[in-house]
Amino acid sequence: MIQKLKDYDFTLMITPILLSLFGMVMIYSASMVIAVVEGHESTYYLIRQMQWFVIGLSGFIFCCIFPYKYYQKLMKIIILVVILLLVGVLLFGNTINNAKSWFSFGPVNLQPAEFAKLGLIMYLASVYSKKQAYIKDFSKGVLPPLVLTVIILALIVLQPDIGTAAIIFLIACSVIFSSGIKFKHLFTLVAAGVVLLAVAIPNMVTDVRISRFTGAYQPFQAPDDGGYHLIQSYLAIGGGGLTGTGLGQSVQKLGYLMEAHTDFIMAIIAEELGFLGVIVVIGLLATIVLRGIFIARKCDDSFGALLAIGIASMVGIQAFINLGAISGVLPITGVPLPFVSYGGSSLLILMISMGILNNIAMNVKKQENEPANNIPNSKTINYSQSGGRTWQKQTR
Hints:
Blueprint: H1 2-7, H2 10-37, H3 44-65, H4 70-73, H5 75-92, E1 94-96, E2 99-105, E3 108-110, H6 112-130, H7 138-157, H8 162-178, H9 183-204, H10 207-217, H11 228-240, H12 265-298, H13 302-327, H14 344-368, E4 379-385, E5 389-395
Antiparallel strand pairs: 1-2, 2-3, 4-5
Helix pairs in contact: 2-3, 2-12, 2-14, 3-14, 5-6, 6-7, 6-8, 6-13, 6-14, 7-8, 8-13, 11-12, 12-13, 13-14
């Protein structure tokens, strides 16, 4: 038992929990006023997030223990559930913020697109790990899994949830690139994506989406319309300075900055805790991403390596898009900040993902603690993997 505890990656165990606990503090600070205005107790959003955290923590502990390699055996069931959820939400889901993206069960809302993120990561990691012998062959090694990827993206775009679709597309690209695909094939996929986007854009353009683009890059030309949210975010960020105005002392959360406890929670962090608070949060998020990449590089199992890359990419890409939106680098897409923003479905999937990543890390540590010369009757097998890199695996 002691040896098993040593095998776990305590950085990956502590960091997401710290971020989640910190997130609950900031959710309470950012939402107490709006909760009262909506007719709830000031702790309304805090309690709901705490409930999701307990569920997520249970999933985290289970996935830390459950061997990640078994997900390959369950892949057909996982993908079938993802497809059924995405189709079901289009047929029977509730519309929130102009998107039919939610199942509502009384006070509980579930967002199937969040489950699709992890499901697709597992699927791509599983399929491309089995295609390593012919990953350079586009039609045989690269193309087949993309059909299901496009279907999942199309179902999410139809909701419409462009932000989540963009995240899933970028995650898929990171897994595909890491699998060892040729650069010319990667360019082919990017070109195809551009063409599909050019075809889809005329049907996706609405006044709301146009205002998001103009609001992101010319906010002061429409301060009461498309640029309002970004201007309020600027005021919050600029008002915090180096050390902030103090926890709970935000002015922008008093009805000026909408969605302060969800999409714009980092702006409130900047206002109340200053630049130093922002750096700490970004540092913790970067720790998770970099640790995930490190684990992927150390893992001698292609499925585990690609799964780790996908999970690290999910956290990094989502954080980048959220931070880009509140700072005006990217249009506002409604993407929450991982672990910190209010949102039960997002927190649940992130905690489960961290459990899976920790299980991969545990297996990597076991490999490191079992040197080749201690394996009786072993022989070395060389096999090629991502990008032509040669790995060595010991077998009995």
